[in-house]
Amino acid sequence: MNRLVVRLSVAFATLILLVTGILAIAIDRLADSSFRRYLAQNQIAESGLSERLAIWYAQHGSWDGAERLLSVGGMGGGYGQGGAQRPLLALADATGRVVADPHAIVGESLNATQRRAALPILVDQQVVGYLVVQAAGNRLSRAAELFLQRLRDIIWITGGIVALTGAVIGIAIARQLVQPLQHVALAVDELRQGHLTARAVVEGPIEVRRVAEAFNAMATELAAANQQRRQMIADIAHELRTPLTVIQGNLRAILDDVYPLSREEVGKIYEATVGLRRLVDDLRELSLADTGQLTLHRQPLDLNQLLAREAALFRELATVQGVALHVTLASEIPPVIADGERIAQVVRNLLSNALRYTPAGGQIMVTSTAHEQGVLVSVIDTGSGIEPTDIPHIFERFYRSDHGRSRAKGGSGLGLAIAERLIALHGGQIGVESEVGKGSRFWFWLPAA
Ligand code: ADP
């Protein structure tokens, strides 16, 4: 009973049976009374009562005393043949006021329905009164009884067929409604058992289709997240392996007296641990940003000031590398509301990347401009540039366009992924345009305060 298909079927079937049952009873009653009334009217018409009433009225000019004609003898021999009972009669005047009635209160007026059902009594084509068949007697002639019984049989058999067909159609509709839901439930079960490729068939009514579509979208996202998680674990394992191999190999060599236990050798091992530490710190920061646990200390910030300060930090390094570093800042830029330390971190990442991929003789330019939605910052270099096929991926975790070379240059492959998260957390956007051999322009904008 708790199954939806059973409940719907029972509801449909009950409703249909109830409706056809009530209809059949109503039609049965109506047929019975209409048929009796029809018989009575026929018999009255045949009995010549209305003609006698008309003659009475013509002679007397009123209905006074006419009730005599309605009594037993008044009906003449036409009624009562075949053992049927006499109908109850009432007489109303031309205005519809009841003037003779053995059972109701004389003086009442006929309503519209009663008047329509009444036999008009005509004198010189003028309606002078109405003969009303109030209720037909309950005993009919044998032939009439048989006819009525047959009519009733037809009503009930038809009612039964309609009810049965309706109930069957109802059950079929219930099944049809529930089936798509069952398909979704099957897909949910499959997904729960770990089959991430499980998808629901989109079918049935709009509401169920929406559920199936939402489920499919969720399953796709789940599969993508699962794939991303696996890839992330593989990447982390891979990234940890390189510095650990270096550390382990160097320590082994020292233990085996292949390398001397000198400051230089220990220094190399220390460098490898610095890389490891940076990787672990970056991973932690990224996971905090992903889970929304990174606290931003936002306050009004002058981006020009920040850019000038960060560029100054890189100037010496750039000079040593033979790269010219220019800063061009727009004088009229609105303040932004941001966490200065986080934005500085993004700028440092872009500057260190620019330096890393720009050979001696190249140039780096830092600019700020007013942007329609806030402030636009660009870090432009004349370095190696990025392959068009790599551009859509470089903000992904651990993505490096030139794997061995980038790692050798000290990148964790997480810098841009972190920058992207930080800028998004500030409500801004980050992007890149690049041409191989010519250089790159990394940009981000932050909304104005
Ligand atoms: P990494 O720590 O390896 O630099 P990032 O996330 O900062 O990681 O950068 C991802 C990749 O994007 C880099 O490995 C490099 O291939 C490419 N890239 C980033 N900045 C530049 C740039 N200025 N010029 C050329 N390639 C760049």
UniProtKB/TrEMBL annotation:
It is found in: Membrane. One of its GO terms (molecular function) is phosphorelay sensor kinase activity. GO terms for cellular component: membrane. It catalyses: ATP + protein L-histidine = ADP + protein N-phospho-L-histidine. Its EC number is 2.7.13.3. The chain crosses the membrane at residues 6-27, 154-174. It holds the Pfam family HAMP. InterPro entries: HAMP_dom, HATPase_C_sf, HATPase_dom, His_kinase_dom, HisK_dim/P_dom, HisK_dim/P_sf, Sensor_HK_Regulatory, Sig_transdc_His_kin-like_C. Residues 175-227 form the HAMP domain. Residues 235-449 form the Histidine kinase domain. Keywords: Kinase, Membrane, Phosphoprotein, Transferase, Transmembrane, Transmembrane helix, Two-component regulatory system. It is an enzyme of class 2 (transferase). PANTHER family: HISTIDINE KINASE 1, TWO-COMPONENT HISTIDINE KINASE. This is histidine kinase. The lineage of its organism: Bacteria, Bacillati, Chloroflexota, Chloroflexia, Chloroflexales.
